[in-house]
Structure formats: structure tokens, C-alpha cells
Design a protein that fits this description.
This protein is α+β, with helices and mostly antiparallel strands and about 800 residues long. Among the domains are: about 1-95, no CATH class; about 165-270, Beta-Lactamase (2-Layer Sandwich), CATH 3.30.450.20; about 505-655, Histidine kinase-like ATPase, C-terminal domain (Heat Shock Protein 90), CATH 3.30.565; about 680-800, Rossmann fold (3-Layer(aba) Sandwich). It is built from 22 helices and 23 strands. Strands 1, 2, 3, 4, 5 and 6 form a six-stranded antiparallel beta sheet that branches. Strands 8-7-11-10-9 form a five-stranded antiparallel beta sheet, sandwiched between helices. A five-stranded mixed beta sheet has the order 13-15-16-18-17, with helices on one face. Strand 17 (about 640-645) and strand 18 form a beta hairpin. Helix 4 runs antiparallel to helix 5. The radius of gyration is 45 Å and the shape is extended. The termini are far apart.
Length: about 800
């Protein structure tokens, strides 16, 4: 009886239909789907016969039809799927498993369908009841506001009649009489803060608060006073403000006064307390949880509200639905939406007060409106679902035990495959890391060798001037330059090189790279260059640019296995319009690399720049080519974009910022002439390579320097700490044996000898960025003698300028 009493308000006569649904399910279990559907149709026909069934609404019949039909079809699908799964996994059908599956489905589907039907029906009733309560509350709030505003309107009209067309002097003469009258009328009214009569200059004539009005009070800047300067007719409701006489919050109901000749004579204002309205609305909310009532001007200004807005801005947001209805001038409206004041979703009723530019918005939270319905659902769920879930759980234990081994084998197979993929990715990463370390180490040692050769060639040219123009010496210098470019390419792969940006003109540089690109793509691919001579210069690392173009050419070659055409176009790129253009808002230079290959599918186009992502066969690519192109463009301050259609070829557009700097001057291939004036400086050289140290000492002495050599950072610190020795400059390699690198040595020297100039040299280091961030100048190996001499002169000159006594 308790369950019947709980369900009767919602279902009433639908309960027999739900019991019939249960009977239909029993028929299906015993006789099959066709018999169950026939039973459903019979029950529906029975309900339609006059006098054969109790009177039932169409809602009850619809609930029965949907619940019975859907349950029959769904149960049949579950039983068939369960049997197929058993056949697939175990090789033959087992009736006990089928009945276990059917029991689980019944224990879940029946209570769920029962619960959802009741919830749907109760939800509609709860919404209807909430709307009725909201409408009653809205009428109360509207009548209250209309009565209060009309009372204050009566006060203002009576005061207008009392004053008539009297002038300011006549009103002042009656000040005490009018004050007593206003105090008697407004005093008992809790909503009235004060009543005032103002002259045409905004100064007070009469007040309900003061028998002698404050002479210094002036309201000529208030909105209700300024309104009368443009419009003398009708009532005006002011914005909320603070009283200048009492400090209380108020808003005014005001009316303009006219003189006998129809001109503006002043203002009559009745000041109302917003908290009076808020308190009344709070009383309504105490009986109706989740209620929000707002008194509004027609322009969206909030005069009073419960609950309080919680922010200083007393206006509705421009996108408020309430404000949109008020702008349309509707007398009343209804909608549901999220409040722009506190972000709570509510159902809102909006009413306009007659004869006044005011609106009452009464709203109820959706959660509060459905609270009773949710409570009833919770009670019903507490009765229905625990037993259903317990039965389903006990039945599933038996089924789970039968499938446990299969599931364990599936998980084991998936984990093995995942482990194999992880191991393969780890091996690939370790291989690339080892290759990067190998190439970086080889390039570092090779740079030292090249610097030894380059330095000795320079010294040889200075000692024997007649050899400077010899072919043999020139060949050695060209070999050193080629070796330096080779090591930079190796370091570019290992990401351990110091960038050497130069300002270049691409139309002059790319023809020299054309032969290398033709060799890389092979004879089956035709290479075409389209170079605009007016292209602006760019500031990039030439080696990085060469590697990027080589990567794009190799990718294009692989995309054209049967041959094709590769086009490289260089031109000025116009500035992108709009604020969203970002870095493309500035003029730049575009390098477009176009092939006639297979193209890139749409689903892969967004991933091509990801490191290690490749669509090539194993062993044909590492997936680093396009990631290097992306890194090069980003590091240069530009961007890269791919345009491709399957079967239509691919275009990769590299956009680089145009350089305002002058073009870089290339070093001459011949040995530079010795400087006119010797350096005359004492240099401490820190270098662990004996051959390189000996060559560098000789080179420094040729510049006019006195040189002392230290093999590591420890020996260098000892010599700098000896009082008898004084050095003018420290020249140190970065990568050295021992616990202290060149950067660490430079940091300690900066603390011990703050004014000592420091130059660092490197051909390979992971800490290059840290050295630059700390303000040290880094010279790349191998370096020309002229470059080293210029760096020495510049560092010594800067130190002399910073010396005390120099401005």
C-alpha cells in the first residue's frame, strides 16, 4: 500500500498498464518475441474497447505502448547479442549463460523504463506547479509595487496642487506649513525616505526631513533634475543614488513643476528606500525558496532586488533577455534563461507597471522549482534500484566468472602490443639521441682541428707574404670553409650548434644551392627556380636555410617516385590585413616550394610538422625533416604553411620577416692584412687542446698581445688570483675537462675581477643559450683571424669605456 500510495498521484490508472507490461515480458521469455508483440497489440485493443478497461488518459496508454514495445525489442536484441558473443568466444551456445544475460537485462531495463516514465510525467507536473506559484508571486510583487508607487504618486500630485503656480518666494514663506504637512504624510510610510521641493536652480525649497532646508544643498547635477530641463511632462524614476543630506540610498519618483507661463519652475521628488522593496521581496522568498524579485527602470537600471546583485554595477548587461523585452516595450513577458546579474538559470515573469516607467521581474530558480520532484524521484529510486542492482550484480558474478579468462587473455595481448610499441619508440629515440651525440662530438673535435689548420694558415701567410696568393694556401682555406659548413650541418641535426644569422638576398644565394638540390632530387625531377630580383633581404642562418630547403627537396623527391617537377619561388610577401594576422602583419619574404607529387591527405596535414611523424616506409625517413623546417621558420621569426590536395601536389610556403638591417659583408677568401696598430694587451688563454692552444697563442702574439696559457679552469683561476699577474682579457673555450666549464669560469671571473673583459669560444655546447643569457660574447669555431682580432679590439674598447673616470 505504501508503494501504491507513492505512485498513485503520478500514474493513477496507469499502474495496471505497467503490470501488463511485466506480463508481456514474461510471455516473451516463455514464448518468444512474436507472441510478446501480439500480446502488446491485444492489450492496446483492449484499452480502446468501450467499457472493457478503466478510463485511461492518452498519456497512460502512451506510457504502456512505449514501455512494452521498446522493452520487447531491446530484450530480444540483448539476448541475441549475448548468444552471438558466447558462440564467438566459447565456440558453442550455452543456455545457462543466455538466461543469465536475460536476467541481467530484465533487472536493469524494467526498473529503468518504469522510473523514466514516472520521472517524465512528474517533471511536467512539477513545472506546471512551479509556473503557477511563480505567477501568484509575480501578481503579489506587482500589486505591491503598484500600490507603493501610486501612493507616492498621490503624495506628489497633492503637493503639486498645494503649490500650484506659486513662485519660489511664496513657497519659502509657507515652508514650515508645507514641512509639517509633508512630515505628517510621509512619516508613517516606511517606503518614503523624504519628500523635496526644488527650485529651477536645483536648490531646496521644502523638505519633509528639515524645517530649515540646507542652503548649500544642490541637486542640479542629478538625473531627475536634468530630465526636467528637456521634458516637463510625466513621471520620472531616477537612478539609485546616495542622499547628500542623510547618506542613505534612495531612488526618486519625481515630477516637474511649471510656472504660470508654462516655463520650468522646479522639481518635486519623492525619495524611496530601496531596502523597503528588498525586504518585502525577501519575505516572499522565505515562503518560496529560489525566488528572485527585481524592480527595474525601463532602461535596465536595477532599483531594488532580492537577492542583492553582489556587484556595484546596477544595470542589466546589454545582452540580457529581460532588457531586450523592455526595449520592445512589452507589457508582460515570460522566458527562461541565465541571469546576467548572478549567472543563475531561472524562469522569469516580467510585468510593466501602468503609468510609470517601471518593471517587476519575478524569477524562480530551476533547481528550486524541481526540488520537490527531485525528492520524490530520490524516494522512488531508493525503493526501486537497490534491489534491481543487487539482483543484476549477483547474476553478473556468474557471467563474469565465465568470461574472466577470455578477458584476461585480451588484456594480456593488448598490454604486450602496447609494450612492443613503447619499446620500439624507445629504441628509435635512443638511436636518434646517440646519433645526435655522436655527430655533435665529432663536429666539436673536427671544429678544433679546422681552427688549428685555419690559424696556422693565417700565421703562415703573415710570416711568408709571398705565399698569400698561392693556389695551395687558397685551396687549404677553401677546404677549411667547406669543413666548417659540413660541421654546421652535423650540428644542425644534433641541435647543438650556435646560430650565425646573416642578412642575405635570397635571389643571390639560391642559385649557388641549385646544384646541391639537383644532386639530391636526382635526374628524374626537374628543378626550376623563380627568383624575383626585387625580393627584400632576410636575416637567417645560411646553414639552417640550406638544411630546410634540402629537407623539402628530399620530401618532394620521395613524393614523386616516377619523376616530376620541383619549383622554388622567391618573392616579396604582402602584409596580411586585420588584427588576427599576428606576425604576418609585417611585410616579409616568401619561399614557395612546389612539387607535382602525390599530395597529403586531409587527415594527415595537421600532423606533418610533429617530430618523428612520417608516412614513409621504415628506414626511409626519421620524421625530423619538416619539424626542422618548422623550427627554422619559427626561430627566424616567421611561419610555415602547407597547401596540398591528394593527387594534386604540395606547396610549402616559408614566410620570413624582411630584414631592415644592411646586407652582411662576406669575409674575403684571402688572408686579411695585419692591423695597423698592435693590441698591446695581456691575454689569459684557457684551452685544453694543446695544438689549438699553441696555434691560438701564436695568432694572439701576431696581434701584439702577451699571452699566458692555462689548460683548464682550475689553472686559470690560480693565475688570475696571483697578485703579481695582471691580465687585460680572458679568452676561454666553453667545453673543457674537469668540473668547471668555460661558462662557469666566466661567471667566477666576473665576481672576482668585475672589470675584466671575457670572450668565450665554442664549436659545440649544450649551454650556449645560458652563456648568451648571462651576457657573454661567444665566438663560433672555427673562426677567422680577422674575426678574432675584431672581437678582441671591441672587448678591450668596451672595457676601457666602462673604466672609472671615463664618461
Amino acid at each position: 500500500m505504501g508503494l501504491r500510495a507513492l505512485l498513485d498521484p503520478w500514474l493513477g490508472e496507469a499502474i495496471p498498464f505497467l503490470l501488463a507490461t511485466l506480463a508481456v515480458l514474461m510471455v516473451q521469455i516463455r514464448a518468444g518475441r512474436n507472441a510478446a508483440l501480439a500480446t502488446v497489440l491485444g492489450c492496446i485493443a483492449w484499452t480502446l474497447l468501450p467499457g472493457a478497461a478503466p478510463a485511461a488518459s492518452w498519456v497512460h496508454r502512451l506510457i504502456f505502448l512505449l514501455a512494452a514495445g521498446a522493452t520487447v525489442l531491446l530484450l530480444e536484441h540483448v539476448l541475441r547479442s549475448g548468444s552471438d558473443a558466447v558462440n564467438l568466444e566459447e565456440g558453442e551456445a550455452h543456455d545457462p549463460l543466455r538466461w543469465l544475460r536475460a536476467s541481467i537485462a530484465l533487472s536493469l531495463i524494467l526498473p529503468g523504463a518504469f522510473f523514466l516514465s514516472i520521472a517524465w510525467f512528474g517533471h511536467g507536473q512539477a513545472q506546471e506547479q512551479a509556473q503557477e506559484r511563480l505567477a501568484r508571486t509575480a501578481r503579489v510583487a506587482e500589486e505591491h509595487a503598484a500600490r507603493v508607487i501610486e501612493t507616492n504618486g498621490v503624495i506628489a500630485r497633492q503637493l503639486l496642487q498645494q503649490l500650484g503656480h506659486d513662485g519660489d518666494d511664496a513657497i519659502r514663506a509657507r515652508r514650515r506649513e508645507l514641512h509639517r504637512m509633508l512630515a505628517e504624510v510621509a512619516g508613517p510610510l516606511r517606503q518614503v525616505q523624504s519628500v523635496w521641493v526644488w527650485d529651477r536652480y536645483g536648490r531646496p525649497l521644502v523638505s519633509s526631513l528639515f524645517e530649515e532646508v540646507p542652503a548649500a544643498l544642490d541637486v542640479s547635477d542629478r538625473d531627475y533634475f536634468l530630465q526636467c530641463l528637456t521634458k516637463l511632462d510625466g513621471w520620472y524614476v531616477s537612478r539609485p543614488a546616495l542622499s547628500r543630506s542623510t547618506g542613505e540610498p534612495f531612488f526618486n519618483l519625481s515630477h516637474c513643476r511649471q510656472a504660470a507661463d508654462g516655463s520650468f519652475a522646479g522639481v518635486i521628488s519623492v525619495s524611496l528606500r530601496p531596502e523597503y522593496f528588498a525586504d518585502f521581496y525577501a519575505g516572499l522568498a522565505s515562503a518560496e525558496p529560489g525566488l528572485a524579485v527585481t524592480l527595474l527602470r525601463e532602461d535596465g537600471t536595477i532599483l531594488a532586488r532580492h537577492p542583492a546583485p553582489g556587484r556595484e554595477d546596477s544595470r542589466l548587461a546589454p545582452h540580457s533577455q529581460t532588457l531586450a523585452l523592455m526595449r520592445q516595450g512589452v507589457a508582460q513577458g515570460r522566458f527562461e534563461g541565465k541571469s546576467t546579474v548572478d549567472g543563475v538559470r531561472r524562469s522569469v515573469l516580467l510585468h510593466r507597471l501602468e503609468h510609470y516607467p517601471l518593471y517587476i521581474a519575478t524569477a524562480m530558480e530551476r533547481s528550486s522549482a524541481l526540488a520537490a520532484w527531485q525528492t520524490q524521484l530520490a524516494v522512488l529510486a531508493a525503493v526501486t534500484f537497490p534491489a534491481s542492482l543487487a539482483l543484476a550484480y549477483l547474476t553478473s558474478l556468474a557471467l563474469r566468472r565465465a568470461r574472466r579468462e577470455t578477458e584476461a587473455l585480451r588484456r594480456l595481448r593488448a598490454e604486450s602490443e602496447q609494450r612492443m610499441r613503447a619499446e620500439q619508440a624507445l629504441r628509435q629515440a635512443q638511436k636518434l639521441e646517440a646519433l645526435g651525440q655522436l655527430t655533435g662530438g665529432v663536429a666539436h673535435d673536427f671544429n678544433n682541428l679546422l681552427m688549428v689548420v685555419n690559424t696556422n694558415v693565417h700565421l703562415l701567410g703573415r710570416q711568408h707574404p709571398q705565399l698569400q696568393q698561392s693556389k695551395q694556401l687558397g685551396a687549404i682555406q677553401r677546404a677549411v670553409s667547406s669543413g666548417a659548413r659540413l660541421t654546421r650541418q652535423l650540428l644542425a641535426f644534433s641541435r647543438r650548434q650556435a646560430l650565425r644569422p646573416e642578412t642575405l638576398r635570397l635571389p643571390e644565394l639560391l642559385p649557388s644551392l641549385a646544384e646541391l638540390l639537383r644532386t639530391s632530387v636526382g635526374s628524374g625531377v626537374k628543378l626550376e627556380l623563380r627568383l624575383d630580383p626585387a625580393t627584400r633581404p632576410v636575416t637567417v642562418d645560411p646553414a639552417e636555410l640550406e638544411v630546410a630547403l634540402l629537407n623539402l627537396a628530399i620530401n618532394a623527391r620521395d613524393a614523386m617516385p616516377g619523376g616530376g617537377r620541383l619549383t622554388i619561388e622567391v618573392r616579396n610577401a604582402p602584409a596580411a590585413a586585420g588584427e588576427a594576422a599576428g606576425r604576418e602583419a609585417e611585410p616579409g619574404v616568401e619561399i614557395a616550394v612546389t612539387d607535382t607529387g602525390e599530395g597529403i591527405p586531409d587527415e594527415l596535414r595537421e600532423r606533418v610538422f610533429e617530430p618523428f611523424f612520417t608516412t614513409k616506409e621504415p628506414g626511409r625517413g626519421t620524421g625530423l625533416g619538416l619539424s626542422q623546417v618548422y623550427g627554422f621558420c619559427t626561430q627566424a621569426g616567421g611561419s610555415v604553411r602547407i597547401e596540398s590536395e591528394p593527387g594534386q601536389g604540395t606547396t610549402v610556403r616559408l614566410r620570413l620577416p624582411a630584414s631592415p638591417a644592411p646586407l652582411a659583408c662576406r669575409a674575403a677568401e684571402t688572408v686579411a692584412a695585419p692591423p695597423a696598430a698592435p693590441l698591446r694587451a695581456r691575454v689569459l688563454l684557457v684551452e685544453d687542446n694543446p695544438d689549438l692552444a699553441e696555434a691560438t697563442q701564436a695568432l694572439l702574439r701576431s696581434f701584439g698581445c702577451e699571452v699566458e696559457h692555462a689548460g683548464d679552469a682550475t689553472a686559470a683561476q690560480q693565475r688570475l688570483g696571483e697578485p703579481a699577474r695582471r691580465f687585460d682579457l680572458l679568452l676561454s673555450d666553453i667545453l673543457m675537462p674537469g668540473g668547471l666549464s668555460g661558462i662557469g669560469l666566466a661567471g667566477r671571473v666576473r665576481e672576482l675581477c668585475p672589470g675584466l673583459p671575457i670572450l668565450l669560444m665554442t664549436g659545440y655546447t649544450k649551454e650556449l643559450d645560458r652563456a648568451v643569457e648571462q651576457g657573454f660574447e661567444v665566438l663560433p669555431k672555427p673562426l677567422e683571424a680577422q674575426t678574432l682580432e675584431q672581437a678582441l679590439r671591441r672587448a678591450l674598447a668596451d672595457a676601457e669605456d666602462r673604466a672609472p673616470g671615463r664618461s
